[in-house]
Design brief:
The protein is of the alpha/beta class. A hairpin with a 3-residue loop joins strand 6 and strand 7. This is Helix-turn-helix transcriptional regulator.
Length: 284
Amino acid sequence: MPRSPSTSAQQAREALATRLAQIMSDAGLKGVHLARAAGWHESKTSRIVTGTTLPSPTDIRLWCEICGAADQAEDLIAQALAAESMYVQWRQRERAGLVSIQRSYVPLYTRTQLFRQYSSTLVPGFLQTRDYAEALLTSIATFRGLRTDTKAAAAARVERSRIIREGSRRGVFLIEEGVLRNRMGDAATMEAQLGYLIAAAGLPSLSIGIVPFTADRSGTWIVETFTMYDNTSAHVELLGAEITVTAPTELRAYADMFDAVLHKALFGEQARARITEALEALTG
């Protein structure tokens, strides 16, 4: 069972906090002494050593200087940046706009050859039509109170997704059957989206599996949506943040879950039949 990705991010923070606490202890200092020397409130030192607050590079350099461990500062800063990159709140990314977020994935997509995505809630972004993407991004913008050009963001999402069909790239998508019945946008938008899924299921570079309602979930369960890029990283989508997983043991856990669900999914004509059923229920 994969650990919660947010737990993994917190563990990275705690590992950094442990090192900083040890450096302080080796210097014979207590939190109150370090805080006084640094010129900040004692509670800040407490939050850092408990992993509640991630220190900035300036904080780390000052901490190490006070403790006579300036030579360790840069390694600790690198560790802090790695911990921070594991857990990025959507609000942080949205400051640059939704169009910027869509385009930010292009370098990752370009260097990836095998894409594996499990989706429990929505049609995978790689397979979304422009209207479906616009309806989704409009919902996100409304929920978060953003003022943004969702039409341009949807166009950017569709444009970046074309990369997966270039060269020798492969995409394997596992979609819970409920996703086919979750309406995003109006009936015409969903009709076009389901029709596109049927067509995409016939492309040689893509494998689209539908996990049926009736699947025996022994050994698996419905988890958060995640995408694996080759065997180098995975992105896990939460309501408030995106988690980046790179630790080998974590990646293996997600790969194992993907493989387990893979054996529950329907492909080919069976998958297209399930999508067609959802389409007929929508139009009937």
